[in-house]
Specification:
Length: 278
């Protein structure tokens, strides 16, 4: 099982693997306040055809991308793309969409100026975010580091007493390599990276942590954890009174302290220094 020091080392290794640390540090140290005369995104409080077109033209110059869907010039008709993503489909909803930026990021995974679309009908929200993005840009950008990636499932096993729990845990801890093999045969993308245990009375909570590639991986880690649990139940010399595949310790669809102290998806830290003038 991993320690805090191991987690820190893994985070540093991840940063080094993404970008040359010397280059990254140099870019961070060279951050300077930008000249306020940079080409600004055309903004307006009242919505007009001219304003919409001017922003589309601006974004095309900056990004090289056209946005025909947002302009209403094309309609979505590729229904095959929706298979597996929605049930009982009846059509599309239209949501007002604004844009802010540039948001400057100097980071281990992202590095550049970004224009961010925001879909909302709350007045002043886009303007507020845009002011923040402008201040961030003028300050030289936000430093952002992706520290670690991981998705967890935390099954719970209940026993008659602590003695049974101890026997179960003694058998289970050396099984990590077997669990990795099970995950490899269950998913093409998931990798089991860690297993931790927490004892609460006569109940044992195991936390399996996975790397899920480019996917959010919620279903992926559920299926992998279920396969591990089925192996445990079939082979353990001590049987639990009952077990659940998710004890909510990992915080699926709810906030827990573990999500903040460990990782849920991607753990990112960021900083920005705003001068008194800005």
């Amino acid at each position: 099982m991993s320690s805090t020091n191991d987690k820190t080392k893994d985070a540093l290794d991840a940063i080094i693997a993404l970008r040359n640390p010397a280059v990254l540090i140099a870019e961070i140290n060279q951050k300077t306040n930008q000249d306020i005369s940079y080409e600004q995104l055309p903004v307006e409080l009242k919505v007009s055809e001219e304003g919409i077109q001017s922003r589309h033209n601006f974004l095309h110059r900056k990004t090289g991308k056209n946005l025909p869907g947002l302009l209403g010039k094309i309609q979505f008709s590729s229904l095959e793309q929706l298979n597996g993503n929605i049930e009982n489909y009846i059509g599309m909803s239209m949501v007002p969409t604004g844009v802010i930026g540039p948001l400057r990021v100097i980071g281990s995974a992202a590095d550049g100026d970004y224009y961010v679309p925001l879909a909302t009908s709350e007045g002043a929200l886009v303007a507020s975010y845009h002011r923040g993005a402008k201040a961030c840009f003028l300050a030289g950008g936000a430093t952002s580091i992706c520290l670690v990636e991981g998705v967890q499932r935390s099954p719970l096993f209940k026993f008659n007493d602590i003695a049974e729990l101890g026997q179960f845990l003694i058998w289970l801890l050396p099984q990590m390599e077997e669990f990795k093999k099970i995950v490899g045969s269950t998913s093409r993308f998931a990798l089991l990276t860690d297993m931790q245990s927490n004892i609460e009375g006569n109940q044992l909570i195991l936390t399996f942590e996975y790397h899920t590639g480019d996917a959010s991986g919620q279903n992926m880690v559920t299926m992998c954890t279920d396969a591990i649990c089925q192996y445990i139940i079939e082979n353990s010399p001590v049987q639990p009174v009952f077990w659940f595949i998710e004890s909510n310790y990992s915080g699926d669809k709810k906030a827990t302290s573990r999500s903040f102290s460990n990782v849920r998806g991607k753990k990112v830290t960021a900083e920005i220094t705003l001068s008194e003038k800005l």
